């Protein structure tokens, strides 16, 4: 927020410098209304920045995340998945999302680690922002209408 507020302050200083540089008398009346509106916008921006800072300070305690399989191969695959989401989709997993995603992955894979890793790799290889149960339909070519109709989301 500081960067945003500094940019707004710089724009305000530039505007004030322009106005103080002298305006023709016929534009003087019009610029007063503009300055009044500009000041209202600055006040709103200040309030918004304060609200955002306040909400950021009131953070929620993260929940403990436990991997469903405590093996090096799954730990590595899961870390690659999280890195992939950040790199490819600008999506950062906080603890509750990660907790729920791991539970869902375990359910989708019927509790089988090798299948869970396959689902993660399939999603990454195809650029998907989420994983899903991989079926033979997933490997088929899309229909002419552009969709597969296999229920993935």
Tell me what the structure shows.
- It is a single chain.
- By secondary structure, the protein is an all-alpha fold.
- Helix content is 63%, strand content 0%.
- The chain is elongated.
Evaluate the radius of gyration. 26 Å
Give the biggest beta sheet.
none
Q: How far apart are the termini?
A: 35 Å
SS field, number of helical segments: 5
Overall pLDDT level: 82
The count of strands amounts to 0
Helix content: 55-70%
Give the SSE layout.
Layout: H1 2-20, H2 25-57, H3 72-89, H4 95-108, H5 113-125
Helix pairs in contact: 1-2, 3-5
Brief overview:
With 153 residues, this protein is mainly α.
Q: What tags apply to this protein structure?
A:
0% strand; 63% helix; single chain; 5 helices; mainly alpha; 153 residues
């Amino acid at each position: 927020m500081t960067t945003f507020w500094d940019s707004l302050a710089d724009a305000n200083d530039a505007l004030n410098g322009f106005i103080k540089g002298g305006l023709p008398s016929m534009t003087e009346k019009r610029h007063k209304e503009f300055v009044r509106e500009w000041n209202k916008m600055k006040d709103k921006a200040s309030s918004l920045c304060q609200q955002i800072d306040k909400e950021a300070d009131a953070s929620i305690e993260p929940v403990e995340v436990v991997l469903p399989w405590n093996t090096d191969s799954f730990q590595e695959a899961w870390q690659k998945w999280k890195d992939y989401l950040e790199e490819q989709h600008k999506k950062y997993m906080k603890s509750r999302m990660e907790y729920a995603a791991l539970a869902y992955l375990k359910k989708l894979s019927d509790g089988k680690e090798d299948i869970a890793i396959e689902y993660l790799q399939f999603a990454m290889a195809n650029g998907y922002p989420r994983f899903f149960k991989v079926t033979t339909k997933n490997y088929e070519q899309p229909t002419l209408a552009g969709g597969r109709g296999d229920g993935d989301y």
